[in-house]
Amino acid sequence: MKKTLALAGLIALTAACGGPAATTKAPDPAKLTLVDRTAKAAGPLDSAVWLLDEEPGTLDLDSDGGTNNRTVMANVCERLMQTQPDMTVKPWLAEKAEQPDPKTMVLTLRQDATFHDGSPVTADDVVWSLKRHAGEGMDESDEFEDVESVGKTGDHQVTIAFKKPNALFVQALAGGAGIVLNKEVVEKLGKDYGTPGHEDGCSGPYQVKEWASGSQITIERYDAYWNKEVKPLTKSIAFKWADDTALVNSLATGAAQGAYLSDTGPAVALQANQAVSVAYGATTKVFVLLPTDRGVLKDPKIRRALSLAVDRAGIAKSGFAGLARPWKVPVGAGAWSYEKEAFQTAYDQLQGAPESPQLEEAKKLVQEAGSPKEPIIVATNGEQARTVIANAVVDAAKKIGLSAEIKTVPASEFGSFYTDKSMRAQVDLVPDDWYITKADPIGFYDNGLTGSSNNWVGYSSPAYDELVAKALETTDDAARAKHVIELQRMFTADMVWISLVEVPNAVVLGSKVTGPPASQVHMGYPWAVDLGAKG
Amino acid sequence: MVRKLAGLLATLLATSFVIFGASYAAPGDPVTFLAGGKENLTPEYLAAIRAQYHLDDPFLVQYGRWLGDAVTGDLGRSLQYNDQVADLLAARLPSTLGLVAYASVLFVVFGVALGVMAAVRGGRTDAAVVAGTTFATSVPPFVVATVLISLFGVQLGWFPVMGGGSLWHLTLPAVTLALGALAIISRVTRQAMVEQRELDHVTVARASGLSERLIVVRHVFRGALGPIVTMCGLVTAGMLAGTVTVETAFGLNGIGSLLVNAINTHDFPVTQAVLLLMVAAYIAVTTLVDLLQPLIDPRVRRT
């Protein structure tokens, strides 16, 4: 009997391992094609189940604009500007954003837009919303640092005055900082706004139908939507949340129709499954190493040497199953929403972050730095990608005459590197993924400013600081791109952060649906509008 | 009864203080989870968040504030979910209670049946039950969950692979949860029955010529019921705190996954409420078993 039972167990286990995860092989990073959108949908869809990593904490993006929260609310709440699947920005609730002078922005509002309660979107709502976003402790308050005042200057006109010019503000208005809320609804609900069981205060093509706390959030097509040119094919979308395994199983069995992936693991498991398709799109997300000023990495020469010695192609392959590509700069190509060619050319010419190690050059740098003996401590939280990166660092260090050790930190504590100096004092390198929500690389480079909260290594260059300020004030795209390219050169020359791999945005779709964008716009663009049945 | 209630309150108070102390002392900072994206982690922003959630107040002040509110029935708002803690619990309790109830029915019915079978039949049946239950206890729940999902969810498509809402959804999770408990109960039942069979009154009954079936039902099983009920109660109470693995594996949004998430994100009000609820439920179940004992076994009443 014992034998029979053991055998039965073994068979069951073998069956389990024969599931979707085991039969796949890693795709070739070089063959990964990025698209803006998936194939256009042909027909209507009554309902779809869409998966998130976890339940949103709130639907009020001012109190928390997490990825999951934004993915849902991008379909419900509209902004003054809107980012498109090709990452460009176009006017939306504001039909025009003019800058009569660099320190003034005049927004002309559409006159036909209405909220979900039927009331019109007024200039008062816009002024009130912008002031709410700017409030202390609000998620987007940092976007308003340069804003002097916001005021209504006409029935359909709002004027924003700046303390100094801000070239990024138009982009910010396409993000959470540009959401227009129904003042009356939000004020009435007070603290309950954005929690389960309450209506939304927005104007988008979908409205929040139900949030059954703990089980699902349903959004439904708003049939009285003001913009008649927008025709959502899917009537209702139920958002559920699942960990990687449940996500893979749900998509494989058809229990769910789609998901934007935050991790490459499920993509690998789903790649070979005929029932689902995975599409990859532009992103700003890059895996980087953030150095601290604790030990030998204080020396730019050592940082450069390490960047030359680390095996980026190997990391892309083992850490991300080929679903990432070696990358030289700290921002993904999805940020190149203007002057794309100039950015690409500059990128191609950059040295210092090769796909495969350049050991000789690296060794020379280490010798110039006096061949320090103190070991480099690299952190991980035990996740596969971070652990692979940490091991690649140890390997690279060894090959160029340095030594390195790995320190594992609990996942719940990993985020504290950003807030706790004493945590940073224990390590030299923190591997992490970074993305910016605005499709403009200048949104990133302020991290290299003297004294910036993410500049742990203490990089300080007056020329760099001056150029960041100048770029932020340059509203002309071509001129700004030139500044950004120079900033990129300075940042990578000294390896303020060490860039490793770019991780594309990924959307997985069940066999019966198609349409939504694949690029990283699902946190601001109403992607559900494009979702529908396959032809 | 009054003394029991006072004891319960004192236990809850002490527990709440310990939980508070533990979450206060735990490494990591809630502010990193409250801040949203990494773009936001500037010192000014973090200071604003700290002030908003009173994170810089001294230990006792924070505890006092929580206790004061809790006494008036206000369990506070979750840090992670802006929602009221009471609403969060109310939304997730049915899942967990349903799961535990379903699993309890399964392990009680099958566990007791297997135990009785082993004790009465003996020999090969006994050996098979012992071997089977040994195997069942040695497989960790997450492995059972994976096997069940792959086999009955993905390959055969008989059961949904995630989520709750119906008995159908809860079947695989309940089986997973019941499996380990089933082994324990069948063992306890078997042991208690075997011990009862050796007792004098059973020998007397047998000598008086009663049928074996009657003896087993009326004397042996009835005598063994005490320890069986106690064990069933303890196991059920333990389950209330042990649904985490199963809930996570099956994507069920119950109290267990809420607790783990709350601990990981330093969501103190939720951690506190869930743990206190679990402690209270444990005390309630064990008290209920205590009250049931005299009804089952008259001898307990006399002592």
From TrEMBL, chain A:
- Per UniProt, what is one Pfam family of this protein? SBP_bac_5
Recorded hits in SUPFAM superfamilies, A to Z, give: Periplasmic binding protein-like II
A single GO molecular-function term is: peptide transmembrane transporter activity
Domain of life of the source: Bacteria
Cellular component GO terms, alphabetical: ATP-binding cassette (ABC) transporter complex; periplasmic space
Q: Which residues form a coiled coil?
A: none
**How far does the signal peptide extend, from start to end residue?**
1-21
List the GO biological process terms: peptide transport
What sequence ranges are listed for the domain Solute-binding protein family?
Answer: 88-455
Keyword set, alphabetical order: Signal
What is the name attached to this protein's record? Peptide/nickel transport system substrate-binding protein
List the taxonomic lineage. Answer: Bacteria, Bacillati, Actinomycetota, Actinomycetes, Streptosporangiales
Automatic annotation (TrEMBL), chain B:
- Residues in domain ABC transmembrane type-1? 93-289
Going by the entry's taxonomy, the superkingdom of the source organism is recorded as Bacteria
The molecular function GO annotations come to:
dipeptide transmembrane transporter activity
**Keyword Hydrolase among record annotations:** no
Q: Which UniProt keywords apply?
A: Cell membrane, Membrane, Signal, Transmembrane, Transmembrane helix, Transport
Can you tell me where the transmembrane regions are? 99-120, 127-154, 166-185, 228-250, 270-292
| Primary localization | membrane
Family from the record: Belongs to the binding-protein-dependent transport system permease family.
Indicate what this protein is called per its UniProt record. Answer: Peptide/nickel transport system permease protein
From which organism does this entry originate?
Nonomuraea polychroma
